[in-house]
Amino acid sequence: MVTAPPLPAKRRKSASWTQDPEGVRRDILAVARAEFVENGLSGARVDEIAAKTSNSKRMIYYYFGDKEGLYRAVLEEAYARIRTFERSLDLAALPPREAIATLTGFTFDYHADNPDFVRLVMVENIHHGRHLASSTKISVLNLSAIDMIREVYERGLADGLFREGLDPIDIHLTISALSFYNVSNQASIRQVFGHDMAAPEARERRRRSAIETVLRMVCR
């Protein structure tokens, strides 16, 4: 299970930014993440974030410029985190079929264990992805995910295991869609069908199905 770190306890103002500026920055980002997840960009309030971190609005603006800069930093941290864990899988060391299955299972679990990430992506889609577009850091991070799939796919082609003519972006989108929907639509599926997608047995069943679906997509 790979989950985001818990929110920090309130810090005393006395030992804050002069002694541990990176720690203060991390605390602000953690609290801001929770506020943006709960209230979206429009509904989140810097006053509330400042109160929960025992920092002033002025200090938050010093680090992040404005509310949108803070929100962009939260997005960057969220994408950096999932990309870091993906790299730790060391897919290049695995046979192609096992690498694709491992990546799919990891992605499914990461989304299920980190619903805040899903909510942030949903919030950003409401804003038509404009903050993602303005972040060079996120663009580079996400291109690395496609490069990782491309390397595995090309090895699978060379070994005669994978079908020709697939685009790595389509493989990535299929993995993401199967993982994202299982979290983003939990409430509506529960209400419409009375089915709890988060129940352990249901989650495990969907996880197996996601891996099988992606393998059928790429394998001969």
CATH class of one domain: Mainly Alpha
CATH topology of one domain: Tetracycline Repressor, domain 2
Major sheet details: none
Approximately what portion of the residues adopt beta-strand conformation? under 5%
Overall mean pLDDT stands at 91
CATH superfamily caption of one domain: Tetracycline Repressor, domain 2
Helical element count? 11
Unreliable sequence segments: 9-15
Structural class: mainly alpha
N-to-C SSE series?
HHHHHHHHHHH
Kindly provide the radius of gyration, computed on alpha-carbon positions and rounded to a whole number of angstroms. 20 Å
Description:
The chain is mostly helical and 220 residues long. It has a domain at 69-218: Tetracycline Repressor, domain 2. 74% of the residues lie in helices and 0% in strands. The chain is built from eleven helices and no strands. The chain has helices spanning 21-43, 46-53, 57-64, 67-88, 96-113, 115-126, 130-133, 136-158, 168-184, 186-193, 200-218. α3 packs across α4. The protein is globular. The two termini are 31 Å apart. 29% of the residues are buried. Residues 9-15 have low confidence and may be disordered.
